[in-house]
């Protein structure tokens, strides 16, 4: 069948994004076709657009990792979903047979892949995916919310709930509030009973974070973050730092972390080269933990938290498929608070 999509025929800038049609294959064994009602942008899409070193993806390539929609067709041997089911997509795919997969650590699979990065993505009227990647859409969510939260929320859950083990009475510093992962990490930490400090570069974003429960909010461009954190914690520092900003904030993250604390990261939007003073690390017993996506247990726990209302997907804005470039412009300008969504159909 012919479907309309937002895809790239070459890497580069926003001018490489085109909305055109292609022939979508029929679902094979264990696969389904999902009519996409809503999808969403992540910083990953900007990296894919520019070209990621070491990943040689076939072109043209459909963008988009997040998505939700309705099952339109099922291939042989599909038993977990049926035509007409409303589903959200787990963006990660693993081989299912390697030692890590057998141990339940799917996101550590050597052949781990993500929709929109290694495989065609969700910015299309329909997508063919393994049926095991389909999960029931929480009824309380709009399509835009349902199609926006999976990648960032799963990533944040793995980082702060599973890896960092956030709990009651802890203090958490989160950089870049307003971005998808940071905003969800704040909600997870607050729901766990932690006190949350945030940084950002927009007075409006910092105010909205305060309205959601952050107790201290600083502009990292003008404030001495490490000094502010030390002052707010009686010179102790925070238990957990969530830093996906990277080069612009990482030095402060190390200085703001208490003895025995942990810094968790899944990216670096301002650059990948981190300024690290190793003396702070060994003297203060600081752990730095990298994290990518999450396993199936993480996904189920994250989905339960969203379904119950403990986590509320925040949608910044919604664009039609034909206006995907405008959606990218908003993300690229870092103007958003929450997710930038796209409606393919």
Q: Could you explain how this protein is built, in words?
A:
The chain is α/β, with parallel strands linked by helices. The chain has two domains: about 1-150 and about 315-345, Quinone Oxidoreductase, Chain A, domain 1, CATH 3.90.180.10; about 155-290, Quinone Oxidoreductase, Chain A, domain 1, CATH 3.90.180.10. Helices cover about 30% and strands about 25% of the residues. It has eleven helices and 18 strands. The protein has helices spanning about 45-50, 100, 145, 150-165, 180-190, 205-210, 225-230, 250-255, 280-285, 295-310, 325-330, and strands at about 1-10, 15-25, 30-40, 60, 65-75, 85-90, 90-95, 115, 125-130, 135, 170-175, 195-200, 215-220, 240, 255-265, 285-290, 315-320, 340-345. Strands 3, 5, 6, 9, 10, 17 and 18 form a seven-stranded mixed beta sheet that branches. Strands 13-12-11-14-15-16 form a six-stranded parallel beta sheet, sandwiched between helices. A three-stranded antiparallel beta sheet has the order 2-1-4, with no helix packed on it. Strand 12, helix 6 (about 205-210) and strand 13 (about 215-220) form a beta-alpha-beta unit. Helix 4 packs across helix 10. The longest helix is centred in the middle third of the chain and has 14 residues, at about 150-165.
Give a quick summary of the entry:
The chain has 345 residues and is an alpha/beta fold.
Topology:
Blueprint: E1 2-8, E2 17-23, E3 31-40, H1 43-50, E4 61-62, E5 66-74, E6 86-89, E7 92-93, H2 99-102, E8 113-114, E9 126-130, E10 134-136, H3 143-146, H4 150-163, E11 171-174, H5 180-191, E12 195-200, H6 203-212, E13 216-219, H7 225-232, E14 238-242, H8 250-256, E15 257-265, H9 278-283, E16 287-290, H10 296-308, E17 315-320, H11 324-332, E18 339-343
Parallel strand pairs: 11-12, 11-14, 12-13, 14-15, 15-16, 17-18
Antiparallel strand pairs: 1-2, 1-4, 3-5, 3-9, 3-18, 5-6, 6-10, 7-8
Helix pairs in contact: 4-5, 4-10, 7-8
């Amino acid at each position: 069948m012919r479907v309309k999509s937002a895809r790239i025929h070459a890497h580069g800038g926003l001018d490489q994004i085109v909305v055109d049609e292609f022939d979508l294959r029929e679902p094979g064994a264990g696969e389904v076709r999902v009519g996409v009602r809503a999808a969403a942008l992540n910083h990953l899409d900007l990296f894919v657009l520019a070209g990621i070193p070491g990943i040689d993806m076939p072109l043209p390539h459909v963008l988009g990792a997040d998505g939700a929609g309705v099952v339109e067709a099922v291939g042989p041997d599909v038993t977990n979903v049926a035509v007409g089911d409303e589903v959200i997509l787990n963006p990660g795919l693993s081989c299912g047979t390697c030692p890590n997969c057998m141990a339940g650590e799917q996101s550590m699979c050597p052949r781990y892949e993500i929709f929109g990065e290694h495989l065609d993505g969700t910015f299309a009227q329909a997508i063919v995916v393994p049926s095991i990647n389909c999960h029931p859409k929480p009824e309380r969510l709009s399509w835009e919310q349902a199609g926006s939260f999976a990648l960032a929320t799963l990533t944040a859950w793995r980082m702060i709930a599973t890896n960092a083990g956030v709990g009651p009475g802890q203090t958490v510093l989160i950089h870049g509030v307003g971005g998808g992962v940071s905003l969800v990490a704040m909600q997870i930490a607050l729901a766990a009973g932690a006190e949350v400090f945030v940084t950002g570069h927009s007075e409006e974003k910092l105010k909205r974070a305060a309205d959601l429960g952050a107790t201290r909010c600083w502009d990292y461009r003008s404030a001495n973050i490490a000094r502010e954190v030390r002052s707010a914690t009686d010179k102790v520092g925070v238990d957990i730092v969530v830093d996906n900003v990277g080069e612009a904030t990482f030095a402060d993250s190390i200085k703001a972390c208490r003895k025995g604390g942990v810094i968790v990261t899944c990216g670096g939007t301002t650059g990948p080269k981190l300024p690290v003073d190793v003396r702070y690390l060994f003297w203060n017993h600081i752990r730095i933990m990298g994290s990518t996506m999450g396993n199936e247990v993480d996904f189920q726990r994250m989905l339960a938290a969203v379904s119950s209302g403990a986590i509320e997907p925040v949608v910044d804005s919604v664009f039609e498929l034909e206006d995907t470039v405008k959606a990218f412009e908003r993300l690229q300008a870092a103007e958003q608070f929450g997710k930038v969504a796209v409606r393919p159909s």
